[in-house]
From TrEMBL:
This is Serine/threonine protein phosphatase. The keyword DNA-binding applies. Coiled coil: none annotated. The lineage of its organism: Bacteria, Bacillati, Actinomycetota, Actinomycetes, Propionibacteriales. Residues 126-335 form the PPM-type phosphatase domain.
Length: 336
């Protein structure tokens, strides 16, 4: 008895791929449907094809080009293992070469005379916040909003208190203190398998300067003169591959591992640190991924000409309208 075929939508969800990606893979001969309706062109897949599809999804997560993936999935297990090892060896060699270039550029720019600001203006922040549990069983997000510090953290694992504890430690003693606060969660876990963790994204306000410290997938947005700019970069595997042109936007949005972090608040982690000159009239918005992962076209909400609490409330309402599958937190600060 032949196995029942799956629609492209059902198959895509099971495989962790988008329907659009499946169509591309069909055109490339990488993942051909078990059946194509001659009249409608509608594709159907066999459940037995799921293993191949999931392998394709994992190899794309590595950043492997599609042509090379075809060689891997068509090879024997031993040959496929050798091909993946060879590909990764090349990736590591390329990374070493790029690191040398980065070192040269950073040394060059750090040696140049920096322009020092003599501004003495102190900006004050009017703040609005939103902090909701969504459909999760527990609230693992946390935030801080003080006159000199705006911060959010998104916890994961079996500790509900870790994000808040990390933010309190950061407020007391900076990034090193926050890392020290979460370190026991890693030291007590199995090697390489922490039972809990958190992201951390903070903006310290110092006169007209904003000092950003960031690890994870929360975001800081700057709204200036109606234009919206994201000041942070998501520390996820999918974001890294998207930036490298190794995944399409469609693949990234639908990927089963799109929330898989490649950097969080862990012992030894190096945060992104950015300084940005701020001015009166600017708006800073911090969001955890429960906001920006589920609401498309955030820009009109972020730049709305209303007060900060109204903006925070509108963002929370938009997440609720999208089903609010995750904890979601937003901090909005209008500077003046």
């Amino acid at each position: 008895m032949s196995e029942a075929l799956m629609t492209i939508g059902d198959f895509a969800r099971e495989a962790g791929l988008s329907a659009k990606a499946l169509r591309v893979y069909d055109e490339l001969g990488l993942l051909v449907p078990a059946e194509v309706d001659a009249w409608s062109g509608y594709r159907r897949y066999a459940p037995s094809q799921l293993e191949r599809a999931r392998t394709v999804a994992m190899l794309r997560l590595l950043g492997m080009p599609l042509a090379r993936i075809r060689d891997v999935v068509d090879a024997s297990d031993a040959a496929a293992a050798r091909e993946v090892e060879a590909y990764w060896s090349q990736v590591e060699a390329d990374t070493v070469s790029r690191r040398d270039i980065v070192t040269t550029l950073v040394r060059q720019w750090k040696n140049e005379e920096s322009t020092m600001s003599t501004a003495t203006q102190t900006l004050r922040a009017e703040v609005g916040t939103g902090h909701r549990q969504g459909r999760r069983e527990r609230q693992q997000d946390a935030f801080l909003a003080t006159p000199g510090l705006l911060a959010v953290a998104d916890g994961f694992g079996d500790r509900d208190d870790l994000a808040a504890a990390a933010l309190r430690a950061y407020a007391r003693g900076g990034f090193a203190a926050a890392v020290a606060e979460v370190a026991p969660a890693f030291h007590e876990a199995l090697p390489g398998q922490p039972s809990a963790g958190t992201t951390l994204t903070a903006v310290t306000l110092d006169g007209t300067l904003g000092r950003l410290t960031h690890v994870g997938d929360a975001r800081v947005w700057l709204v200036r003169d109606g234009e919206v700019r994201c000041l942070t970069h998501d520390h996820t595997m999918v974001a890294a591959l998207l930036d490298a042109g190794q995944l399409t936007e469609e693949e990234a949005r639908a990927h089963d591992h799109r929330s898989l972090l490649n950097r969080a608040l862990t012992p030894g982690v190096v945060p992104d640190e950015v300084e940005v000159e701020l001015r009166s009239g600017d708006r800073l918005v911090l969001t955890t991924d429960g906001v920006h992962a589920h609401v498309d076209h955030l820009e009109p909400l972020l730049s709305a000409e209303t007060g900060p609490q109204a903006v925070a409330d509108a963002l929370a309402a938009a997440v609720a309208a999208a089903g609010e599958p995750d904890n979601h937190t937003v901090v909005v600060a209008d500077l003046g």
